[in-house]
Amino acid sequence: MQSDAEKLFNRISFGFLLAVLISCASLTDEATKKESGSIYLQLGVRYMDLDKLEIAKENLQIALTKDPDNVQVHNAYAFLYEKLKDDQQASVHYERALALSPDDWSVQNNFGRFLCERGKYKDGMALLLLASSTQLNDKQWIALTNAGRCELALKSNQSAKAYFEQALILNFAYAPALLEMQKISFQNREYQEARNYLERYIMVGAYTSGLLWIGMQTEHALGSPANAEHYQQLLVEKFPLSYEAKQLKPVLQ
């Protein structure tokens, strides 16, 4: 027969084992939820890319339910609310993401851009400078370009140009920075530079009506009517209803 001490020991051992098993089950359940949340996050982002915003919202809501402290879920949710024109909810989720991970460069970049676009330049620039300066950010050119755009909104064109140039040093073919530099070069009447940036952009980016409009005027300024005609035709063919296309007659007279 077992002694009282042996019985007590067995009870304690059994209780300890049961606690361990329950703990392991809880950990497994929590890991499963996080993994599932990650899948729904990816689906939500994918549907956003396809501009299927309602389906994206459904998936991100599930991701948030399964993993409410996931920084990137809040980051994605905030961006979705931007697309839905709900700035209040976008701000709520950006702030939550930043509170969960103050050093996350992706959140810093997105929230900084969001604030600059809404006139909160000081707070926006502070976040963008953090995002562009951390060595953990392997895409610093994105934050630098957003900082440049923020400076443009403040009419600080020289500072903006410096940020775009830094972005292009890091990524020679970054289309948004090339597009901004084309505009600045044209405004500064640096027509050869404007042409160079346009040609670099065309290799990596999609046409825009503004790009073709400036390209056409640049070629006129450089005395290249054939090139100007080429951009004019592209503008009319690709963007016939654009503001720029409607301005063609006054420019060509």
* Total strand segments: 0
Poorly predicted ranges: 7-14
CATH architecture of the domain at 173-253: Alpha Horseshoe
Helix-and-strand structural type: mainly alpha
- Into which percentage range does the β-strand content fall? under 5%
Shape verdict: globular
Quickly name the level 1 CATH class of the domain at 173-253.
Mainly Alpha
Outline the structure in words.
- With 253 residues, the chain is an all-alpha fold.
- The protein has a domain at 173-253: Serine Threonine Protein Phosphatase 5, Tetratricopeptide repeat (Alpha Horseshoe), CATH 1.25.40.
- The protein has 14 helices and no strands.
- It has helices at residues 4-49, 53-66, 71-83, 87-100, 105-117, 121-133, 140-153, 157-170, 175-187, 191-202, 209-221, 225-238, 243-246, 248-252.
- Helix 1 (4-49) runs antiparallel to helix 2 and helix 4 (87-100) packs antiparallel against helix 5.
- The chain starts with a helix and ends with a helix.
